[in-house]
From TrEMBL:
Domain of life: Eukaryota
GO-annotated cellular components: endoplasmic reticulum membrane
Similarity annotation: Belongs to the peptidase S33 family.
Pfam name, any one: EHN
EC number assigned by the record: 3.3.2.9
One MF annotation (Gene Ontology) recorded for this entry: cis-stilbene-oxide hydrolase activity
Protein name per Swiss-Prot or TrEMBL: Epoxide hydrolase
Length: 457
């Protein structure tokens, strides 16, 4: 007899016979995204990079923070339901202008080696930490990618765990934490169409530039979508894919979600059913919380003018999304619940990376270039990838996807880790939990690879 999940999975498999799988899109690994006049003089060296908070930038920033206009008071009896509570903004602006230790924090930001190299016309920024190991210990590469409105700094607390030597395993991890193109100190494209599929090619080429023809990956938020594309395009190069926000968009999974609204047990285990159903709750949350998404997917440059010009606007915009992404119910708190999970320094460090690099606009364009007719026509989520995958799903992540459903995209799904806590910004909130899960995933990926090699002999 089949379980409910297996029965629906069989039905989905049957329906898939009548839905044509799209072909793998043509991939141009040399597509140029920078200024055309620089193509003939491209510098492909790997250059050390140091983040600077120079005196003139700090003076200008402080002036803007100290001269913010009087804000409209929030409505009586509200927390942050209408947006980040304006009664809370002044204390954050005072902290950023008067108390935030600029020079101490830039030292902290620079504690790991950072570099830039030009890939397809774009200077790509990344942190690279290569651990020193004793003889007999293998160093394996892991590319980790953040999302919006995060940055590569999210992974700083994971690095000591990932790069540590353990007597329980014969390898240690080299961490490459890249800034998504257009984010932080990585260049954005100078022409439209640079969606997550194009970013996947650029970042795969980065790994080749660093000497890694095969490597492991981890992604969160947009980073997870980029990594999914990378595993689709280059399945023989990605040794294993770990995601803390698994997502797929396909007609079959949409059909399954609707069926589950009437018969939840067909789709999801009872203990996690409340993460998906009732569907009306999920859709209500998406409508309520995705206004920024629609704006940035259609007219990102308009809002980015305000965010680039006003540090107060940038703070309110980012903090509101971080608050609700951490726990949806924090919308009812005036303070957004931010300091229950993160330090003031962490939150402002992230703002500083965007402000110092002037990357708010180029980062925001990922929505418009990835939620576009061009990208949707590729239907990459309907193309299976043979790459071994491992997913971690936090209690308060934006959405939950059942493992069998994820297997529609990644049939070699190795494991699902389900947390009874944690939100969208897991690398900042629970760094050790996330890092240890990534290590377990790599252990299992390597075991499967060694098993496959033995079977080939």
């Amino acid at each position: 007899m089949f379980s409910n999940n297996e029965s629906l999975s069989l039905l989905i498999s049957f329906l898939s016979l009548f839905i044509q799988t799209p072909p793998l899109p043509e991939i141009n690994v040399n597509e140029w995204w920078g200024p055309r006049h620089l193509k003939s003089i491209q510098d492909t060296s790997i250059r050390p990079f140091v983040v600077e908070f120079n005196a003139s930038m700090i003076a200008d920033l402080r002036h803007r923070l100290r001269n913010t206009r009087q804000m409209t008071p929030p409505l009586e009896g509200t927390g942050s339901e209408y947006g980040f509570n304006t009664n809370e903004i002044p204390r954050w602006l005072r902290y950023w202008a008067e108390e935030y230790p600029y020079q101490d924090r830039v030292v902290e930001i620079n504690k790991y080696p950072q570099y830039k190299t030009n890939i397809q016309g774009l200077d790509v920024h990344f942190v690279r930490v290569i651990p020193k190991v004793p003889i007999g210990i293998e160093v394996v590469p892991l590319l980790v990618l953040h999302g919006w409105p995060s940055s590569y700094l999210d992974f700083y607390a994971l690095i000591p765990v990932l790069t540590s030597v353990s007597p329980h395993r014969d390898f240690v991890i080299e961490v490459i934490a890249a800034s998504l193109p257009g984010f932080a100190f990585s260049d954005g494209a100078v022409r439209p169409g640079f969606g997550v599929d194009k970013m996947a090619v650029v970042l795969r080429n980065l790994m080749h530039r660093l000497g890694h023809k095969k490597f492991y990956t981890h992604g969160a938020d947009w980073g997870s979508v980029v990594m999914s594309n990378m595993a689709t395009f280059f399945p023989n190069e990605v040794l294993g894919y770990h995601s803390s926000m698994p997502t797929i968009f396909s007609p079959l999974q949409a059909f399954a979600r609707i069926v589950g609204d009437y018969f939840p047990s067909l789709v999801v285990r009872p203990e996690v059913a409340d993460r998906m159903y009732p569907l009306s709750n999920f859709l209500s949350k998406i409508v309520r919380e995705s206004g920024y998404f629609h704006l940035q997917a259609t007219k990102p440059d308009t809002v980015d003018i305000a965010l680039t010009d006003s540090p107060a606007g940038l703070l309110a915009y980012f903090f509101e999304k971080i608050s609700v992404g951490t726990r949806e119910y924090y919308q009812h708190r005036a303070d957004g619940g931010l300091e229950l999970h993160y330090t003031k320094e962490q939150l402002v460090d992230n703002l500083m990376v965007y402000w110092a690099s002037d990357s708010v606009a180029t980062a925001g364009r990922i929505y418009a270039d990835s939620f576009s007719p061009r990208y949707f026509s590729l239907r990459t989520d309907s193309i299976q990838s043979s790459v071994p995958a491992w997913i971690l799903q936090a209690k308060y992540e934006i959405s939950y996807i059942p493992p069998w459903m994820y297997k529609l995209k990644f049939p070699n799904l190795v494991n699902e880790t389900v947390l009874d806590t944690g939100g969208h910004f897991l690398a900042l909130e629970l760094p050790v939990v996330l890092a240890e899960d990534i290590v377990r995933a790599v252990v299992e990926f390597r075991r499967l690879q060694h098993k496959g090699k033995r079977e080939e002999l």
